[in-house]
């Protein structure tokens, strides 16, 4: 007997599938809506974490903490010259004092622009290699020429944020798996309920020579189509909401939040979720129906 994805008219009449839209389809739409949102959160957070790691890898900040301006400027100049002569350093830039005062204004107010305020000199450094050995060599060379220098590795002080993003990605993946398990449970309950509803019809089919596998195909096709149609509806609604949220995040102008984006591969994965859930529903329905038929009917 061949397996048909679309039930015939006789099959639909047999299992009362000529009725209006079943609740099962809308349940699956809700399940896929929530699943796609969880998946988009995980993929977007993973993208932002990867972007953050790429931006911070191999970046250092050198602070010359010296209260005497003349000594501070001399050490800053020596540190710049040393950094630009190191093969591990690809770029070293002295941050302008006016820019530092602007950054400090929210905390210090107009006093941040006071020329007598001993603001540390700061140097942004980009390394060609982000390895610990390269960082150690650069740190030793700078401190040898500028004793008041403090070297901060961006990767270290942003690691809590990166770890948090990794945790959110893991939680999102766990939610997707949980929704898949819940979908399988709903399918099993729906299949068993359908068997009980059509018990008399199935007994007649058995007397006419139908096998358990043939009966199971009737249920699994119906449930698979309900899951697929409902899943497509839920996925379309969820993707629309994800796109709207992405537009709003882009309008905020935050470098960190702007990294919460989905690339074409991520959108493809989200689009495949309804088909994956339809396959899951087919397998769950077949297993549930065959298990009950072999024990009871």
Give a short synopsis of this structure.
With 297 residues, the protein is of the alpha+beta class. The chain is built from 10 helices and 4 strands; from the N terminus they run ααβαβαβαβααααα.
How far apart are the termini? 21 Å
Measured on Cα atoms, how large is the radius of gyration?
A: 31 Å
Strand elements, count: 4
Helix content: 55-70%
Name the overall outline: rod-shaped
Beta-strand share of residues: 5-15%
Output the keywords.
4-stranded antiparallel sheet, alpha+beta, 8% strand, 2 domains
What are the SSEs and their pairings?
Elements: H1 9-14, H2 23-56, E1 59-64, H3 69-84, E2 89-94, H4 97-108, E3 121-127, H5 132-145, E4 149-153, H6 154-157, H7 159-197, H8 199-207, H9 212-252, H10 264-295
Antiparallel strand pairs: 1-3, 1-4, 2-3
Helix pairs in contact: 2-7, 2-9, 2-10, 3-5, 7-10, 9-10
Task: Describe the protein's architecture and organization.
The protein has helices at residues 9-14, 23-56, 69-84, 97-108, 132-145, 154-157, 159-197, 199-207, 212-252, 264-295, and strands spanning 59-64, 89-94, 121-127, 149-153. With 297 residues, the protein is α+β, with helices and mostly antiparallel strands. The chain has two domains: 9-53 and 160-295, no CATH class; 66-147, no CATH class. The longest helix has 41 residues, at 212-252.
């Amino acid at each position: 007997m061949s397996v048909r994805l679309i039930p015939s008219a006789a099959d639909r009449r047999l299992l009362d599938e000529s009725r209006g839209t079943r609740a099962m389809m809308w349940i699956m739409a809700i399940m896929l809506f929530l699943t796609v949102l969880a998946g988009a959160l995980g993929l977007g957070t993973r993208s932002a974490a990867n972007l953050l790691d790429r931006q911070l890898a191999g970046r250092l900040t050198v602070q010359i903490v010296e209260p005497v301006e003349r000594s501070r400027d001399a050490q800053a100049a020596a540190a710049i010259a040393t950094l630009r002569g190191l093969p591990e350093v690809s770029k070293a830039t002295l941050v302008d004092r006016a820019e530092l005062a602007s950054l400090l204004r929210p905390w210090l107010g107009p006093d941040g622009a006071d020329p007598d305020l001993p603001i540390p000199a700061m140097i942004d450094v980009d390394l060609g290699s982000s390895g610990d050995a390269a960082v150690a060599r650069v740190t030793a060379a700078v401190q040898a020429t500028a004793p008041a220098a403090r070297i901060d590795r961006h990767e270290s002080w942003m690691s809590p944020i990166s770890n948090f993003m990794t945790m959110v990605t893991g939680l999102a993946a766990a939610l997707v798996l949980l929704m898949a398990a819940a979908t399988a449970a709903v399918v099993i309950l729906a299949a068993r309920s359908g068997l009980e509803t059509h018990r008399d019809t199935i007994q007649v089919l058995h007397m006419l020579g139908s096998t358990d596998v043939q009966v199971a195909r009737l249920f699994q096709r119906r449930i698979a189509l309900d899951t697929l149609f409902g899943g497509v509806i839920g996925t379309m609604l969820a993707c629309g909401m994800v796109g709207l949220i992405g537009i709003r995040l882009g309008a905020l102008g935050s470098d960190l939040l702007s990294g919460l984006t989905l690339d074409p591969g991520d959108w493809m994965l989200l689009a495949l979720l309804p088909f994956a859930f339809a396959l899951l529903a087919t397998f769950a329905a077949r297993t549930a129906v065959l298990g009950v038929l072999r024990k009871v009917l």
